[in-house]
From TrEMBL:
Its main location: membrane. GO terms for cellular component: plasma membrane. PANTHER family: MEMBRANE PROTEIN MJ1562-RELATED (PTHR33406), MEMBRANE PROTEIN SCO6666-RELATED (PTHR33406:SF11). This is Membrane protein. Keywords: Cell membrane, Membrane, Transmembrane, Transmembrane helix. It comes from Streptomyces fumanus. Pfam families: MMPL. Residues 196-328 form the SSD domain. It is a multi-pass membrane protein. InterPro entries: MMPL_dom (IPR004869), Mycobact_MmpL (IPR050545), SSD (IPR000731). The keyword Membrane applies. Belongs to the resistance-nodulation-cell division (RND) (TC 2.A.6) family. MmpL subfamily.
Amino acid sequence: MATMLYKLGRLAFRRRHLVALIWVALLTLAGVGAASAPPAGNTSFSIPGTEAQKAFDLLEQRFPGQSADGATARVVFKAPGGEKMTDAGNKATVEKTVADLADGSEVASVADPYQGKVVSKDGTIAYASVKYDVSGMELEESTKDALEAAAQQAREAGLTVEIGGDALAAAPHTGATEVIGIAVAAVVLVITFGSLVAAGLPLLTALIGVGIGVSSITALASALDLGSTTSILAMMIGLAVGIDYALFIVSRYRAELAEGRDREEAAGRAAGTAGSAVVFAGLTVVIALVGLAVVNIPMLTKMGVAAAGTVAIAVLIALTLVPALLGYAGRRVKPAGARRERRGARESAPQPAKANMGTRWASFVVRRPLAVLLLGVIGLGAAAIPAASLELGLPDDGSQPTDTTQRRAYDLLSEGFGPGFNGPLMVVVDAKGSKDPDAAFTKVSDEIKDLKDVVTVTPPAPNKAGDTATITVVPDSKPSSVATEDLVHAIRDAGADVRAGTGAETLVTGSTAMNIDVSQKLNDALIPYLVLVVGLAFLLLIVVFRSILVPLKAALGFLLSVLGALGAVVAVFQWGWLAGLMGVEETGPVMSMMPIFMVGVVFGLAMDYEVFLVTRMREAYVHGESPSQAIVTGFKHGARVVTAAAVIMMAVFAGFIGSSESMVKMIGFGLAVAVLFDAFVVRMALVPAVLALLGKRAWWLPKWLDRALPNVDVEGEGLKALDTREKDRDLARV
């Protein structure tokens, strides 16, 4: 592989005009596609194989025309102090508001609170339900304006009015912190390279890669049902890996220049050595992201595939566009150590070379490996303790900031109708196979009324065919409580008994039931996902490092990193530690998809640093150095660059903490902490400590396996052969 990438790097350097033109054309094409494509909406949230999804699909089939996926709004009214919503003046105001709401072209139906008898027991709070024909992201701005205008008129009449539901949903935004993250990355690159041109190359190529990836996602969003969150996550990961991959190529290029090679040769060598590490690091990230398909949640699969596509673009750009731009930069990109040489030349006497920080740190770890190992494991174990209290859930209006109308509407409904009112359960009774459907509907309703934690059970509402009915159940506890989860299971158990007696099937759906099913599905998928992703990456790393213990150590280190990061997420987003500093206005359960998504992404990124750092050690060991000396050599050449890459990646991820989307905010924080733990504790401390303790055994591989594995030549042995042939040709000329 090293020889093939070497030739590709030289070709890109020589034909830089053509390479640059191709990438600019791709960026332009993707941009035009994005500009002409319809906007992304909320991706359909389906969970195949769950009871909640089965019930939802049954509703679509048996109750056609009800716009089950359309936006909803709850307009909540509260009477002034000392008054009631049943007073004549307040009632007239509400009825006028309901009439105004019903005038919209996209409105499917409006439920009057007085006809529906949805006024609180004390008479102070009532609400009107509005159903729309399209989803919240597809609503016209004029429809949203009409909704807010109707509410404002009621406010002017003296009522407190708030709007809940997803009708006012807005596309998430990331805020100014994303720009700050990129600015921090730029500063780190300038410090690392000491040159604005060299520092600008990774930023420029990363932005081009992200531009192509995100524009392609935007162009395909409507056709492939990609939500707006998908492009944000692809941008987050694409920026981080794009900068890092280009950083490693440019760093190796400068090192090759320092060895005395001409610029074209240095570009080829950089692509052949660091480029090989980039390919395998990118492959691990792609495997981890595409592997999310194992969970069988379409939204998660699409997010993973979209982000994986952006990573693949970043790899291709690092191997082709970076060498091409190095050709344009020419002498403006200096060899590594050029500044130190100039400074030494100005001094009267030559100064002995001083060991860099990476060399000194590696030497320290090699001398005290056991102490470093124990300290690192104990520290990450302590950080992981909060993860034992992990609670999973899906966001609702109760997780919104307290200054939003959605959150205030949520609180008013809880005040007037009880905490369970914001998470009603929809029970669907399929009596198509029952001899007496009406008796089955009544039987289910009676069974539910006898259960604990039930406040209200509405009468069965059958469809036109009379073979299916819906029953709304309002729990006594809030949607995310254990008591409500127990009630869902109790209804399902009671439904099994009814089916045995009547032949009618009882299904429970609604946001609360969907949340329970999603959490269970994710828990069930976690082990198969880990086996698949870690197993494939383990095999890949065996091929790269030609070792059994090095990939095993890499996987165990990743587990420590992800557990520590999950502990930090729980501490901030669930417990509320430093919540104000992170902009978390409301604590609560961690997003259900967060653990498995973070496992996938962190595993891929963890293997990045493993590949970049340990391939240098492997290269030194293969070329004759002792195991301990190879560790020091690997840190001498790689520690500075890996440190810079980790800081950049942390800055990029932390930049997304300012997002208005709670999932993006949580993932940005979790990934930033995970990179901190993995790069600076696991890879910089635990990896050299374990390798020092293992010695030569770290690089052991059974002979039969060594013969069976393909030789991918990450160490660049093929390039050493090129050196030998060049020397032979030079001697022949002499």
